[in-house]
Every structure is written in structure tokens, then in C-alpha cells.
Write a structure and sequence with these properties.
The complex is a heterodimer of chains A (154) and B (264). Chain A has 154 residues and is α+β, with helices and mostly antiparallel strands. In chain A, 32% of the residues lie in helices and 18% in strands. Chain A has two domains: 2-77, Beta-grasp domain (Ubiquitin-like (UB roll)), CATH 3.10.20; 87-151, [2Fe-2S]-binding domain (DNA polymerase, domain 1, Orthogonal Bundle). Chain A has five helices and five strands, in the order E-E-H-E-E-E-H-H-H-H. Chain A starts with a strand and ends with a helix. With 264 residues, chain B is α+β, with helices and mostly antiparallel strands. The radius of gyration of chain B is 18 Å and the shape is globular. Classes of the chains: A alpha+beta (154), B alpha+beta (264).
Chain lengths: 154, 264
Amino acid sequence: MGHEVSLRVNGEAITETVEARTLLVDLLRETLGLTGTHVGCDTSQCGACVVHVDGRAVKSCALLVVQLEGCDVVTIEGIAEGDVLHPMQAAFQEHHGLQCGFCTPGMVMSAIDLLNNNPHPSEQQIREGLSGNLCRCTGYHNIVKAIAACAEGA
Amino acid sequence: MYDFRYHRPAGLGEASALIGDAEDGVFLAGGQTLIATLKQRLAQPSDVIDLARIDGLDGIKPLGGTIEIGAMTPHADVAASVDVQKAIPALAALAALIGDPQLRNRGTLGGSLATNDPAADYPAAVLALAATVHTDRREIAADDFFRDFFETALEPGEIITKVSFPLAERAGYAKFPNPASRYAMVGVMVADLGGTVRVAVTGAGPCVFRQRAMEAALSESFTAEAIADIAVAQDGFNDDIHGSAEYRAHLVSVMAKRAVAAAD
């Protein structure tokens, strides 16, 4: 059965007809072509699919599109200002906060939410803040450094 | 995921009517357990009734001797609430340990209690603090609420609206999380409710339970030493790839001592 859902994605108002069972991550990737949001697991553990809904980091594989009527969704594609990277993206680049890059979109979206809630986290708080994101390259050290640097405005 | 009919009622009455009419309906709160279950095709409900747009089911209200938390309040809001941190710091600390940050932004108190996962954190708080679960039909004492493995006192179609937590003189929670899932291998909440001490254990058995021997000892002397020598029976404890029953029994003792030491 089709459900018409209206929401905003990266600032743009969209209306799509979806099945009740359609996951947000599938709308983003399959319908809207926003493939920066990744799927790394099927169990809501890896965090590669993290996006913001109404300003909060969520796992887009654990949300139904029908839950999001009127909501504001921001993905990794929506955080840069034109050609100017978001400060968190720039910090990941500067500090080489990635190896293969698969987990990076989710890491960046989680890191932005972390600093929104706690602008000056300790290293321990950064690591705890990343507990919902897995990096199979185990590249955590530079990810933590990048987030700390972004928090310092470096 | 099998498809289903989706409903978004605006009020409790409408939600009740919808589930009454459904062949095999379920309520959707934050969805952090239900959606994962549906994805794995472990459930095939005919109708999913989303409670998210019903007014008055979320929010935190400090009252005189209690603090009320709406059933649809996300874990992150409880963890960050200055009111909860002041009233029952251990409850805010417990909420901050549930799952991961993204789950805490969606998962709700009511959803956690209605699911009654044997390794969930909130059941330990509700039981140790002798909280009252309010539904659209009645009030249920914590001691009567948690029945068995994923089983509660909720009747078919009954909706949790809020939970009132009495203010403890001091309380503490200690959890040994499974490193992958963050569910409690064992979690212990201790609460001193003014002379009466309650100890609730999650993760160890098929359902949260009270550890009476520790309660008696802590009522005499609220110190980690008072419970150090209490033997924890492992009968019926969970025994799986994550840990043996014997290991969990040992963790109950260790977590209980840590919870007492952390109590404030």
C-alpha cells in the first residue's frame, strides 16, 4: 500500500509515495540517489548510514520513511556549503580521519551531532560518542584526532 | 521486511481502536527494537500503529516526591535532562548507557518497558526504584509489571503513557555491556528509598529480578562490603556465547558492589 510522505531532505521539500516498510536509507539511496549514506550491516550496529533527522543523529536503516512526515533530514551530501567543506569534513581531511572511507559519512554525521551536544568533549567522550559507528579499518585514532581538532576550531 | 498497514493516530482512543480492529497489530514507539525485528522477518504484524504523533506522551515533569517521564521520551532526553540529573542522577546515567547515541535519539522509555528485553537497562531502574507504570487503563507497580522473558503485565492493546519514579535517597547503576551490542551482560541498579533498599538485576536471567539477599544486607549497611560475601545462585541464568551462567552470577556480585559504590 502506498503512503504519500512529505519531508525535507538537505533543505529541499520532497513528496514521495513509499511502501510502509520502506526504510529511510533506501529512500535516500535508491529513490533520491544520495549514495553517500552507506549500508554496512543489516543490524543497525555499524553506523555507516547515520544521518540527521530534525537535528539529531539517527541510523537511517532503523527508521521508516512513513515515520518522517514533516521531518527535516540532512545527509552527508547536505553539510558542505557549495565547494566549501563542512568544518568536520575539513578536519577529517586534514587529520586523515579515514582509511578506506566507507564508514566516513556516518562518522562525520555522528561527530557533528556529538559536538552539537558537547562542544568541548574529552577524548573519552569522543570515543564514547562514536560507540555507534564501526570502522573496519580500525582507523579510530585519527578520527578521534579529527573530531578533537574540529572542536578546537583547528 | 514484510509489508504492513501503517497508521499514525492522533490520540490514545484512536490508537486503541486501531489495534482493536487489527488482525495482528503492534504499536511502534521509537522502533529501535521493532524495526530491527521486522527487518529480520522475525515478526509479521498486519498493522503497525505509530504512537509518535500522540500529544502528551513525552516530556519530563519533576513533581514533589516523584519525577514523571512520558513514555515516548527518548533516552537521550532523559540522559540530558537537568531535572532527572538532579532528582535521580543514577537514572540519567543509566539512560546515557543505553545502546549508542543514535539509538538513544530514537528509542523510548515506554518502548523499552513494553518490550521487556531481558538485557535492557530501563527495567532495572523501574524495578529498583519501585516506579509506577501508567497506562491508558491503569497504574501498574513495578513489582507487578515485569512478568517473564519479553513478557509484561500489559494487556493486548494497552498503552504505556508515563512512568513515575519516586526520588531515591541515593541510587546507583553499574553495567557490564556486551562490547558489540551494548546490551547488559549484567546490569545492577541499587536504590535506597529511605531505609528500604532495592536491588534489581538485568541481563543475567530471562527477566529483570530483585536480589533479595543483597537488599536485606544493604538495608542494614549500605556499603559494598555488606554484599561482598553474598553468593549469587546461577539457576536459570542466561548461558550463551557471550558468557556462562557462572560468569554472569559473578558479574552480578561485581556490578552490585560497583553500583553501591557509585550511588549518589
